[in-house]
Amino acid sequence: VQLQASGGGLAQAGGSLTLSCADSTRTLTKYGVGWFRQAPGKDRKFVAAVSRSGGETVYEDSVKGRFTISRDNAKNTVSLQMDSLKPEDTARYYCAADWLAPRATTVIFDYDYWGQGTQVTVSS
Question: What's the rounded Cα separation, in Å, for the pair 121 and 88?
Answer without folding.
Answer: 9
